[in-house]
Every structure is written in structure tokens, then in C-alpha cells.
User: What shape does this take?
Amino acid sequence: MIKKNSLLNTVKLLLFLSLALAVTMKDLSPASQENTLTLTLGSRFSLHFPADNMLNLQYNLTSLPGTNFKKNREGFLSDIKRTVADPFYWEKSDWLKAAVVTGITAGIYFNDRGIMFWTQEHRSKTTEHLSKYGELFGNPYKVLPALVLLYGYGGIFKDKKAKEIALLSAESIFFCSLFVYGLKFIGHRHRPEGGKYNKWDGPGFKLSNLSFPSGHSAMAFCLAAVVSSKYKSPVIRAIAYGTAALTAFSRVHDKKHWASDVFFGAAIGYFVTRRILKKKKKDEQNRAPARQSAFINLFPNKGSTKGIQIFPLIDFNRLGIAMSFEF
Assistant: This one.
């Protein structure tokens, strides 16, 4: 016998999944430049896929209950400051973890070519399907719209956990991206297509040869770390990290990254996100219980002229974030 509440929640979830699939599976390839898709759910947020091939996500989320933009803006700026200065306050255990990750990355680096050869020799229809599935969870064209929809789902159906996961994931991806793209522009490592695992072009801002580290892997492990922090079930955690590992595998399988790129990107996604979650928990314990919201809301009300507005900007050659700050 199915309980009424369970049936209602199932219907809600199916409606959300249908909506998510309709948007995130939209073809955003250059061949579909003439297509335009606009999705608006009430006055809370909208997604617009314009004809110029630029994905522009515009959020207006502070109309939802329990948000406090002024406090959250201060929290976001504080998080930026703390994240940038974080290594200066590392303890011995943090330096030990960094040393272990660096050592493993170096070991994999000198075996990158052999790992790539082995992976390509063992490709099959099964690995092709697994790779295609895994790539989705590190693809910003799929992940970013899905997070917006997840937040909308949480607001519409009063699902607090869904909203928390969406906001924490967005913040974690933002900070992970700072580290990932900082290292990409410092190193400019060549991708596997060239066949030279040890070729680096050094510092610069050109949008080519950005193999190290893997952004897809970092994003996937960001999501896995957030989801596993909200669900204590070992099964859910195994699925979350298993899916992230599949994303990492897909980058080597598809010859987009070397194995060391993937490992170091995954480490960034995991450790940066865990650090953010730890600080959030500590802040939670230090703040008054009456505080309205523990999570960051970066987006002011539609009529507001003050505050921070952040818009993810994606085209087929670059990934970035546009930010405006008025006070």
C-alpha cells in the first residue's frame, strides 16, 4: 500500500525530473545556434539560451522564504577571503594531505602515457556508454542548469535539502573553478591529442592547452562531496563518488585529459569542497540559532540596485563568471 505523502512526493519528483531533462538535454552544439529556449518559473528564476550560443543563467532567488541577502553577501565575501588565505593557516595534517596528493600526482604523471595506451587498447561499447554517461556530471552545460532547476524544485515543493544542495554545489564549483583555472593558465599543459604528456607552455591567458587539472573531474567530485554530506546513507555516498569516478574515467577514456590531470582535479574538487563544508558547519555552530539561512544567496531581488549579481557565462571556447557589485 503506497502512502499518500509518498505518492505525492513521487509525483513531484517525476515532474521535476521531466522539467530538468527537457532543459539539460537541450542540444547546445554549434549546429543549434538558431534555437532559443526560455524557461521561467514564477518570478524566482529564469533560464535563457539565446541564439548567440551563450548560456546565460539569470537568478532571482531572494524572493524565496528564509533568505537574507545582506548577511549572505557578507558571508560570500568572507568565504572568498578565507579560501584565498586558507593555505597560510594550514595545520600539519593539511600539509601532509597536500604532500600525499602531490606525490601521487607525480607518480601518475610519469605513467600518464602508459595509462593512456592501456585505456585506449581496452575500449569497448560498454566503456563508450559508461564514458558518455559519466561525462554529463562534469559538463557545465548540464550541471549548471540542473542546479538552478534543483533550487527551483526545492523552492516550489518546500524541499529544504534540495535548495541546500543546489546552493552549496554552486558555491563549491565556483571556488574549485578558481583553483582549477588558475592552475590551467599557469601550466598550459598539452592535451593527449598531441601525444606528449610532458609538454607545457607555461603561464599565459590563451584558451588552449589547458589539460592540467581536469575541470570535469573537479566539478563531479564537488557535487559528490556535497551530496554525501547531506545524505548519511553509505549507498547514496557510494553512488555519488562512484559517479564522480566515472566522470574522471571518461576524461581519460575520451582522450581529453591525462590520468594525472584527472586525479589532481578530483583532489581539488573533494578537498576544497570538504573545506568549505567544514567551515560552514563551524559557522553554524558559532551563530545564533535564530539565524534565518545558513546558505549563501548571491542574487538580489529584481528591483534592487545594491548587492552582488553573478552570472555564469559559457560558450564553446571559454567558461567564466560575470560579476557586478553595487553599493
In short: The longest strand covers residues 307-314. Confidence is low (pLDDT under 50) at residues 21-70, 290-303, 314-318. The radius of gyration is 20 Å. Strands lie at 37-41, 45-49, 55-59, 307-314, 319-326.
